[in-house]
Amino acid sequence: MMKIKKNLKYVLNIFFIVVIGWLTVRLLFRGEEFSDIVADLHLAKKSWLAVGAVCVFCYVAGESVIIKYMLRLFEVKTPFRRCLKYSFIGFFFSCITPSASGGQPAQMYYMKKDGIKIGFSTLIMLIITIAFKAVQVLLAVAFLLFNFGFIKIHVGRLWWLLLIGFILNIAYIAGLVFIFYKPLWARKMGIKLINLLTRIRILKEKNNEKYINKIKRICDNYMIGSEYIKSNVHTVINIFLITLVQRLFLLAVTWIVYKSYGLSGTGFWNIIALQTMIGVAVEMLPLPGAAGVTEGCFTYMFMSIFTAELVKPAMLLSRGLSFYLLLIMSALVTFVAHFIVMRNDKKNGLEGSQEVKKEVEKE
Question: What is the rounded CA–CA span in Å between residue 115 and residue 288?
């Protein structure tokens, strides 16, 4: 029954993304002929768009490089194609869950099915999360410091959304740092918060112990992660650098779309700066794929750069490459991976699969 509910939730999230995407396009292109939209899309050079698709693949592969790198440090031999599979699966579930919360548990599940210890996968996902969030915020801060005038002009009335994004991201990173350096304090505060929420009936009494145990496990995992980072500073720095390059591949998609229309006048780093601001503003919002909000931010911030005539088709191409293409590719890989797991479970019995799910849920 729980499995049916979870699958239904994923289906509803995908449906939500499709519907919001469709409504956004209808709203943005209201009063325009479909043939005109298609004509504007065809103005973009296909060779540049192919480069954009390659960048999206490199973005996914960037995380695979980190997974492969860390597994090698743990002396776990895993082919790169499997690491690529884990990355695609992670991106698929991140795309269809609010605040990208479903990706890492799914990755850990499939890693475990391939014989990788939960302890290893937990640590890898933890380091990847910290690096990804830290790189995003540091990039945004750097752009604000060195390119504030340009950003201020183009962000305009959306400063409030950017501010909320910064607050959410910094609060998230601050929480990670606090758990890292004061795990016992974090555990005590977490338990007190769960008990308070139970007393005021926000959480059900029967779930109190489950949430407390989850808080304890999270703090224990972060304690292990803290020790690893302190003992392997060089490794963590390498992961941060790989993450920076990985992030730039995805951010560059908008610049590639810009060049596909033969436009000039706005530099590479200026476009990267604006795309970074959009990422900070929307990625922590509790919406699957930040659907609707991302498209609106893009159209507003890039209006003067792409011109009023091309900004909407540019948004479709940029979002199509960086999100919907990634979603489709990830969905196909996830479907094939899940089919193989189900086939193996039928051969070996379902017991092992259920044990893996319980183990992953504990983490």
Answer: 30
